[in-house]
Amino acid sequence: MMQETKRETAIGLAVTAWLFILTSLWLPWWLVRYSDSAGNRYDQLGVWLWRPLAEVTTSWGPWLTGMLAALVALWLFVRVAARSWYHEPAIWARDLWLLAVGAGAALASALLWPDTDNFKAFWGGTTYSNATTGTWFTETVLPGLGWWCTAVAFLCLVAAAVLVRAAADDASDK
């Protein structure tokens, strides 16, 4: 009974991961914000996978990330639609790990996006001052919602793979 519950939970996690990774393809992957010493926030800029902006990205970084995320979404769709957990349990277990690696690679490839020194602060920002006006500006680059959706998909895939492995271990113990 416990073995079946683990399998069902893994399937639910895999479907959840598929929904999150699909959602990530339509959301901004990077958010660039500027603020000044007066507390004003302006020039908010979102960077999407399929609409890369040359001034904040490399020419091929977003396309690589987008292709990796799309490949994971397509591969996961095929495996879920084919009910691989029922027909090919060993391949299902292997593919969950490979899909998790693919989602992790999509997350990591976002680090290839920066093109200038100002955008290398993926988790933070850069502060500089304007000597003429005496104000300072902070430029912040943060992961956008697309990045976070893929991170959730990655965690769901890892959890599903662990559960499938545990269910297989339970079955072999009997």
Quick take:
With 174 residues, the protein is of the alpha+beta class. It has helices at 2-24, 61-81, 84-87, 89-109, 145-173; strands spanning 30-36, 41-47, 125-129, 136-143. It has one domain (2-30, 52-117, 146-173).
Describe the protein in words.
- The protein is an alpha+beta fold.
- It has one domain (about 1-30, about 50-115, about 145-174).
- It contains 5 helices and 4 strands; from the N terminus they run αββαααββα.
- It has helices spanning about 1-25, 60-80, 85, 90-110, 145-174, and strands spanning about 30-35, 40-45, 125-130, 135-145.
- The chain has a 4-stranded antiparallel beta sheet with strand order 2-1-4-3.
- Helix 1 (about 1-25) packs antiparallel against helix 2 and helix 2 (about 60-80) runs antiparallel to helix 4 (about 90-110).
- The two termini are about 10 Å apart.
- About 30% of the residues are buried.
